[in-house]
Specification:
The chain contains 19 helices and 2 strands. The protein is an all-alpha fold. The protein has a single domain, classed as Ammonium transporter AmtB like domains (Ammonium transporter fold), CATH 1.10.3430. The chain crosses the membrane at residues 30-51, 63-82, 122-142, 149-170, 182-204, 216-235, 247-267, 279-297, 303-324, 336-358, 394-417.
């Protein structure tokens, strides 16, 4: 435990107040760094990625959806959703909300769920996970969802869906001591992919022309946003142990090894099948690699991470590029960025592979208990076949719970919102895009080579200060 010079403490505060015995400063510093890295994945990471990966006329709205969600989730999280996720157990699937989170000083105390860090740091770290989950979900809805419906959707889904999955698997729920989910293969990615597809079904498709032709408006910026995601995943998986220890180092290495392998496999399949490599394909392969390794990053050997990269670069590729085109249901549901494939399929794959490849000694180091696992592969080798098979059964059970809950909760939320405001913009707004939704455009030049007339009802914009340039609707 490191020591600190306390001479600068305010009058009346003793050394043990600001630096108590239970606080490990190195762990706390790494935890805050990890939280910042996960936050940067959303803002600016996904803000840039979404704003660049869509058609030019939807750049502002897509980026704004991510920015709004980040802010809205934070308030929901500190007011009630954190306690619902990690607070005292109220039911097998949800914790009991408690106003102490903002009214009291318990946040300065030691995190009860483990680690030598303050609760406040853990709250912020877990907020970054909650926020990115909702934003990833939003990738399925880009290019047509009514922004006001999105404003209602974010807090409702955070409360009724994400908090339930987090409590059931990570908090004090009925699956907490049974499921291997190192950093969110199920809680974050399977839930966002399933909920994204479900919400896309209820919101409806994009404008017909957008579904047929939806090129990225800025591929270089898209790569910049993707870079924030890839490098930010160092904190995503590296922060899960709540300490700067051996598991942390292994998790970071495995994360990048799996991701690099996945990219190369995805690109190889593109070249073999389509005779041309694709930048967008490389980003998709990066995403599936990051997602797949997440539930296993710190509890598998590096050779297993390579195997997971091979599978994450090939199985989601097949579901997206082949199976999707053969499925009438998947063709009907307009999942704008293919979140179902990159997150639900890759998250499920990672969760199942965790149950297969989790190493017993790493499980004991991370979870501090010996009744989880072993992975089925090690169960066979170590003559613990029944225990390995049992763990695979729990992995399947966890996947089923997250899938069913997200389908039901997301459906209820979408139907409820549709009674208040339309889930989807009208056809005129869909044809125009950002200008209709916000009265703003992403670029001064008209990148699509055409200019749509703006109906009168979209011209009612607030008076801008004199130093602002005229909006596109005034030109």
């Amino acid at each position: 435990m490191s020591t600190t010079n306390h001479t600068s403490l305010p009058s009346g505060l003793g050394p043990d107040v600001a630096s108590p015995e239970w606080l490990n400063k190195a762990d706390n510093e790494w935890q805050m760094t990890s939280a910042a890295m996960v936050g940067l994945q959303s803002v600016p990471g996904l803000v840039i990625l979404y704003g660049s990966m869509v058609k030019k006329k939807w750049a502002v709205n897509s980026a704004f959806m991510a920015l709004y969600a980040f802010a809205a989730v934070l308030l929901c999280w500190v007011l009630w959703a954190y306690e619902m996720s990690f607070g005292p157990r109220a039911t097998p699937v949800v914790g009991r909300p408690d106003a102490r989170g903002t009214a009291g000083s318990y946040l300065l105390g030691r995190n009860e769920l483990g680690g030598y860090i303050p609760t406040a740091g853990y709250v912020f770290y877990q907020f970054a996970f909650a926020a990115i989950t909702v934003i990833l979900l939003g990738g399925s809805l880009l290019g047509r969802m009514n922004f006001y419906a999105w404003m209602m959707f974010v807090p409702l889904w955070t409360t009724l869906s994400y908090a339930v999955g987090a409590h059931a698997i990570w908090g004090r729920g009925f699956l907490t001591d049974r499921i291997i989910d190192y950093a969110g293969g199920y809680v974050v990615h399977l839930s966002s992919g399933v909920a994204g597809l479900t919400a896309a079904y209820w919101v409806g498709p994009r404008h017909r022309d957008d579904r047929q032709h939806f090129p990225p408006n800025n591929i270089i910026n898209m790569l910049g946003g993707a870079g924030f995601l890839w490098m930010g995943w160092t904190g995503f998986n590296g922060g899960a142990p709540l300490a700067a220890n051996k598991i942390t180092s292994l998790a970071v290495l495995n994360t990048h090894v799996c991701t690099a392998t996945s990219i190369l496999v995805w690109l190889s399949l593109d070249v073999v099948v389509y005779l041309k490599s694709s930048v967008v394909g490389a980003v998709q392969g990066m995403m599936t690699g990051l997602v797949c390794i997440t539930p296993a990053a710190g509890i598998v050997d590096t050779w297993a991470a390579i195997i997971m990269g091979i599978l994450s670069g090939s199985i989601p590729w097949y579901t997206m590029m082949v199976l999707h085109k053969k499925s009438a249901f998947l063709q009907k549901v307009d999942d704008t960025l293919g979140v179902f494939h990159t997150h639900a399929v890759a998250g499920l794959l990672g969760g199942l592979l965790s149950g297969l490849l989790a190493k017993p000694d790493l499980l004991a180091m991370f979870y501090n208990r010996d009744h989880l696992g072993p992975g089925f592969f090690y169960g066979v080798i170590n003559h613990e076949f029944n225990n390995g098979l049992r763990q695979m059964g729990f992995q399947v059970l966890g996947a089923l719970f997250i899938t069913v809950w997200n389908v039901v909760a997301t459906t209820v939320i979408c139907i409820a919102i549709s009674k208040v405001v339309p889930l989807r913009m009208d056809e005129d707004g869909l044809e125009i895009g950002d200008d209709a939704a916000h009265g703003e455009e992403a670029y001064a030049l008209w990148g699509d080579g055409e200019r749509h007339p703006v109906p009168l009802r979209f011209r009612m914009t607030p008076k801008m200060p004199s130093f602002c340039t005229r909006s596109s609707m005034e030109r």
